[in-house]
């Protein structure tokens, strides 16, 4: 397609094999399906990927096979120029002659394919180099060939992390041929991605307006995604806090508690996974793998008191939760109290039945025995009482949110959520005001068993939205790790 027919500017992403071309395309267009692989020469054909904004295409990026025979290609072109010497003959004509020959010559198949969008579709050129590899003289042939096309162009040094010892060397080598920018294809966050887009202004003078519009729209889109993610997390918390499992009271209550707890926590994990997937899709991560060990941590830390401690939940809150669990040691599931709210509000812990074996020594699930309308009694297992639990849930959700929303789409490694260190405690950084507000919503959800008023629900979403990945408003995050002010401990004593 000629540029006159195309609505959006296009850039062919070219360079030697294995420099990170496909990685840059994947990260820029947020496509985690693009083949990124350690083998040199993994991309064998050109493919155009569009950066879509709403219905419009802001940019097209063309992933290309890497140069394989650049020096021989350049030698051919130079020979052609010698053979066709005349004041009217241009370098671009020589490149076109090469392209024509190479299209039917298997030893130049990569060169022919990568030149195709530049020569036939008027694409600009994004020349990618690897800042962790030394610059070698032979790369000059690639740069010369690209310069001969006359296409607007820019050089990108792929930093591949923070330590790119040869970036300076590359910078010097590229400058005679290109405007140069640096980019970390796998480590780039949303802002770094926008900065690279912004640098496209320098590729072609005519692109300024398109670039500015795209950046504005990308910012809006990101903000909208954050809104939706906050709503997804609020929804998750509302759902989980109102989960319960109920059945007619059986003689062997310990076994029944264990069975119902297992069922309840299966639902809980499933619901949490669902919410995570929704968030991953929002940020266009469709193929995200989670590492098994991280998953295990994720699955268990929900009820791990060490996590609570790291989150800044007070010692007294933890102690009373522990004491309440301890009071039940020895299977004191004493039905003698009778009535509708036997064991109401108490927590059942490791000591009871096999619950602890499933949920770890610090496990807490809430158990009630209720009077049934037609006589008899019902055993109900609910998600853990107290505000610690929703805060743990919130912390996990936000951690995941931040990781996913900041993750470059070129990465193919499993998502690793390392719980268990203070850096992962987002709740700990909350201001007193934000904690209070969230505590209030969590208490309301419990009280009304998930039926929140619309206004309240919206306010809760706003409170969660304030914790969005790249917004750190002072209102929500305090400088000091002040002692949390929460509902005393959420664990009521036995009636
Ligand atoms: N850690 C890290 N690895 C990277 C980065 N960029 C590329 N790689 C790795 O380098 C290898 C090649 O990356 P690709 O993006 O496939 O490179 P390419 O230039 O498209 O390679 P070909 O298509 O084979 O020419 C893959 O194993 C990538 O995971 C980066 O920024 N950081
Ligand atoms: Mg590739």
Provide a compact summary of the structure:
This protein has helices spanning 21-29, 70-83, 91-102, 109-120, 139-148, 167-174, 190-199, 208-241, 253-282, 292-301, 305-310, 315-327, 355-359, 388-405, 432-447, 454-465; strands at residues 10-14, 47-53, 56-63, 124-130, 153-158, 179-183, 244-248, 347-348, 365-371, 377-382.
Q: Which regions contain 5 or more consecutive residues with pLDDT less than 50?
A: 1-6, 294-299, 315-363, 472-495
Strand order, biggest sheet?
Answer: 2-3-1-4-5-6
How does the major sheet shape up? Answer: 6 strands, mixed
The helix tally amounts to 16
The SSE string, one letter per element, is EHEEHHHEHEHEHHEHHHHEHEEHHH
Residue fraction in strands: 5-15%
Q: Tell me, what's the shape?
A: elongated
**C-alpha end-to-end distance:** 77 Å
**How many domains would you count in the coordinates?**
2
Question: How would you describe what is shown here?
Answer:
The protein has helices spanning 21-29, 70-83, 91-102, 109-120, 139-148, 167-174, 190-199, 208-241, 253-282, 292-301, 305-310, 315-327, 355-359, 388-405, 432-447, 454-465; strands spanning 10-14, 47-53, 56-63, 124-130, 153-158, 179-183, 244-248, 347-348, 365-371, 377-382. It is α/β, with parallel strands linked by helices. It has 2 domains: 10-203, P-loop containing nucleotide triphosphate hydrolases (Rossmann fold); 220-465, no CATH class. The strands form 2 sheets. The chain has a 6-stranded mixed beta sheet with strand order 2-3-1-4-5-6, sandwiched between helices. Strands 7-10-9-8 form a 4-stranded antiparallel beta sheet. α3 packs across α4 (109-120). The N and C termini lie far apart (77 Å). Magnesium ion binds at residues 21-22, 42-43, 63.
């Amino acid at each position: 397609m000629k540029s006159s027919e195309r609505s959006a500017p296009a850039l062919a992403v070219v360079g030697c094999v294995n420099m990170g071309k496909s990685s840059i395309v994947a990260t820029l267009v947020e496509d985690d399906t693009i083949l990124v692989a350690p083998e040199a020469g993994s991309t064998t054909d050109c493919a155009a990927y569009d950066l879509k904004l709403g219905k419009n295409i802001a940019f097209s990026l063309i992933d290309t096979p890497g140069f394989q025979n650049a020096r021989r290609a350049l030698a051919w072109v130079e020979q052609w120029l010698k053979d066709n010497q005349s004041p009217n003959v241009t370098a671009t004509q020589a490149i076109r002659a090469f392209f024509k020959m190479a299209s039917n010559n298997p030893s130049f198949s990569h060169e022919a394919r990568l030149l195709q969008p530049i020569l036939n579709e008027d694409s600009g050129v994004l020349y990618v180099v690897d800042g962790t590899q030394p610059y070698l003289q032979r790369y000059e042939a690639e740069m010369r060939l690209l310069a001969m096309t006359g296409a607007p162009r820019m050089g990108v040094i792929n930093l591949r992390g923070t330590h790119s010892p040869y970036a300076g060397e590359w910078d010097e080598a590229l400058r005679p041929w290109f405007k140069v920018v640096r980019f970390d294809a796998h480590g780039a966050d949303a802002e770094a991605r926008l900065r690279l887009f912004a640098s496209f202004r320098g590729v072609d003078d005519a692109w300024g307006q398109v670039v500015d519009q795209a950046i504005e729209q990308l910012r809006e889109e990101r903000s909208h995604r954050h809104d939706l993610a906050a709503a997804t997390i609020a929804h998750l918390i509302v759902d989980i806090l109102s989960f319960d499992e109920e059945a007619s009271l059986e003689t062997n209550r310990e076994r029944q508690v264990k069975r119902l707890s297992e069922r309840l926590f299966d639902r809980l994990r499933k619901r949490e996974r669902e919410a995570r997937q929704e968030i991953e899709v929002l940020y266009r991560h469709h193929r995200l793998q989670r590492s098994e060990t991280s998953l295990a941590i994720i699955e268990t830390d929900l009820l791990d008191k060490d996590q609570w401690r790291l989150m800044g939940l007070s010692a007294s809150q933890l102690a009373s939760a522990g004491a309440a669990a301890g009071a039940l040691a020895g299977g004191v599931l004493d039905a003698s109290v009778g009535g509708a709210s036997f064991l109401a509000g108490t927590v059942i812990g490791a000591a009871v039945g096999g619950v602890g074996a499933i949920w770890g020594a610090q496990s807490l699930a809430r158990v009630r025995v209720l009077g049934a309308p037609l006589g008899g009694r019902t055993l109900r297992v609910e998600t853990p009482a107290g505000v610690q639990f929703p805060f743990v849930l919130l912390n996990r959700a936000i951690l995941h949110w931040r990781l996913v929303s900041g993750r470059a789409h070129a990465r193919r490694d499993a998502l690793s959520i390392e719980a268990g260190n203070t850096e992962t405690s987002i709740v700990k950084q909350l201001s007193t005001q934000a904690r209070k507000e969230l505590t209030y919503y969590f208490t309301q959800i419990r009280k009304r068993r998930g039926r929140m008023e619309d206004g309240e629900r919206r306010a809760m979403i706003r409170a969660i939205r304030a914790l969005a990945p790249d917004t750190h408003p002072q209102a929500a995050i305090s400088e000091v790790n002040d002692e949390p002010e929460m509902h005393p401990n959420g664990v009521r004593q036995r009636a």
